[in-house]
Amino acid sequence: MEKKNQNQTLTDTDVLNALRLIYQTKDREGLWVFISDIFGVRIPRKQICIEHNAPFDFICAVFFEEHPSIIALANRSGGKTLNYSILDTLNSHVHDGCETASAGAIEEQARKCYRYFQGWNGRIKVFAKRVVSSLMSETKFTNGSLLQIITGTQKGLKVKIPILVPIKSRLIG
Questions:
Q1: Cα gap 23→31, rounded to integer Å
Q2: Could you tell me the pTM of the whole model?
Q3: How far is 20 from 39, CA to CA, in rounded Å?
Q4: Tens digit of pLDDT per residue, the chain (173 long)?
Q5: Measured CA distances, 17 to 22, 36, 63, 114, 158 (Å)
Q6: Buried b (16+ CB within 10 A) or exposed e, 60-85
Q7: Cβ–Cβ contacts within 10 Å for residue 6, how many?
Q8: How many Å apart are CA 69 and CA 65, to the nearest integer?
């Protein structure tokens, strides 16, 4: 995903068009390669326990909108927060006008998700150029998208977005 050939690097438009094509065609392998190449994260694709899903199954289920609502249960340090930060980044850039509210169970978890999100949207140039302003409570993008990373408490869930998107997750082992 980094290079067209030995001498050409991908343009911002190439990267965004690749992401849109992956979304439109529901290309699971393309999504895994995109995340690996662009984010530098190799999300596990193999399930460990019978009747559980691999972490990448969760990423695909949310990104490709396979279910109206998804619940994630995983062990501590199972990658849920990291995965959400990647999903928040992908959704904010692939969908024009996307309004997302991601809720961490506790304030510390919400802050951690925002730190990851800031890292992706600061380090990855194509994404950095599209951020208009960024606070944990509200990040705005040039494509009209809006992201809020909040605490999953009664107070925290009182967000500005008129329709709160269901907190999405997937059972991941």
A1: 8
A2: 0.82
A3: 16
A4: 544 445 458 899 999 999 999 999 999 999 999 999 999 999 999 988 888 889 999 999 999 999 887 777 777 777 889 999 999 999 999 999 999 888 888 889 899 999 999 999 999 999 999 999 999 889 999 999 999 998 877 666 665 554 444 444 434 43
A5: 9, 17, 16, 25, 34
A6: bbbbbeeeeebebebeeebbbbbbbb
A7: 5
A8: 9
**DSSP assignment string, 50-84:** TT---HHHHHHHHHTT-SS-------TTSSHHHHH
Token code pair at residue 32: 């895994």
Characterize 115-144 residue by residue with b for buried, 16 or more Cβ atoms within 10 angstroms of its Cβ, and e for exposed. ebbbebbeebebbeebbeebebeebbbeee
Place of tokens 């399930």: 47
CB distance 173 to 47 below 8 Å: yes
